[in-house]
Amino acid sequence: MGKIVVVGSSSIDLVVTSPKRPIAGETVIGESFHIVPGGKGANQAVAAARAGAKVEMVGAVGNDQFGDMVLDNFRKQGVSTKFMKSVTNESTGIAHIVIAEGDNSIVVVPGANSKVDRSLVDRAKEAIKDASVVLLQLEIPLDTVMYVADLCKKWEVPVILNPAPAKILPLELVEKVTYLTPNEHECRAIFRDCADVEKLLKRYPNKIILSEGSQGVRYFDGDRFVRVPALSVNVVDTTGAGDTFNGVFAVALSQGLPLKQAIRYGCVAASLSVTKLGAQGGMPAMEEIRKHVGDEY
User: Fold this and answer.
1) Residue 230's domain is classified under what CATH number?
2) Which of 53, 131, 133, 186 has its CA 20 to 30 A from that of 256?
3) Residue 116: inside a domain
4) In the prediction, which pLDDT does 106 show?
5) Is 117 a catalytic residue?
6) Which residues, other chains included, contact 296 with Cβ-Cβ below 8 Å and sequence gap of 6+?
7) Where are the alpha helices (DSSP H) in 135-258?
8) Helices of type H across 156-285
9) 3: helix, strand or coil
10) Domain for residue 52, yes or no?
11) For the chain, how many structural domains are there in total?
12) Is 7 within the bounds of a domain?
């Protein structure tokens, strides 16, 4: 199995569960509160490690208690912290998550994640060059994402860009990455010139891998639209499902699996992940994923 390098965000999630999501000016009584490791980059790194890959995380935390929690969690999960930077006078990134009415709402405060810059990437250049797959997201500066994409294009290293939180992206970045993995909302936010998602999938065959929640994933293979289904499960918490998909999708690609099969592995992993609380709480091991993939894959 190859090596996965994740360049991205690390944070602590402050998770509240509630029967109802408050509207502006309203106070509601919640059911529970949890403090758990999170951040899209960290979640994807843990998902890949849980699925059996060797993972290097390139990121930053504050010199504070939450930063210690993030680094300790990486070590427990088998994710290398060699390229994690501790930043003084900056707090560790925080995500405030409300789980209510079968879905989640998230407010992200980047903190030290804004310090994931070119100089930090330069420290990890050899690891990136030797990677089987590099994972990127948008909770770190866009300049850093562009820089990593440039390096990977030069070195012919496959790149998965999970474009979240959604923003309009330079088309040159879309062209340079190997796979773009948005949901439908993110897809429309990235390409504001095109409200027709199917036209976008046709414009970027085998590149835009569109996540559609419980319906699974859809893409255009050059000849036809392909849907890869998710599992039917009892949903507890959808936080981190997309990150689980991306991490395991990367692992499957690093093993040399064909695109459709690699996507199925990611879909199964994401489905299993939502059956437990927390972004990382339900991330499955590869052995469990294989049990549910299906003979046709």
Assistant:
1) 3.40.1190.20
2) 186
3) yes
4) 84
5) no
6) none
7) 142-155, 171-176, 184-190, 197-203, 241-254
8) 171-176, 184-190, 197-203, 241-254, 259-273
9) strand
10) yes
11) 1
12) yes
pLDDT of residue 194: 66
Beta strand residue intervals within 2-143, DSSP E: 3-7, 11-17, 32-38, 54-62, 79-87, 93-100, 103-109, 133-136
Rounded to an integer, the average pLDDT of 27-43 is 94
Whether 24 maps to a domain, the answer reads: no
Residues annotated within the binding site for K(+) are: 237, 239, 273, 276, 278
Q: What is the pLDDT of residues 220-236, one digit of tens each?
A: 999 999 999 988 888 87
Q: Which residue range(s) make up the domain with 120?
A: 3-19+32-293
Identify the active-site residue in 143, 150, 243, 295.
243
Alpha carbons within 13 A on the beta-carbon side of 126? 3
Find where tokens 């690891």 sit.
Answer: 127
Q: Give residue 84's pLDDT.
A: 97
The binding site for substrate comprises 11-13, 39-43, 139, 243
The whole model's pTM is what? 0.91
Length of the chain: 297
Give the residue numbers of the binding site: 11-13, 39-43, 139, 183, 211-216, 237, 239, 242-243, 273, 276, 278
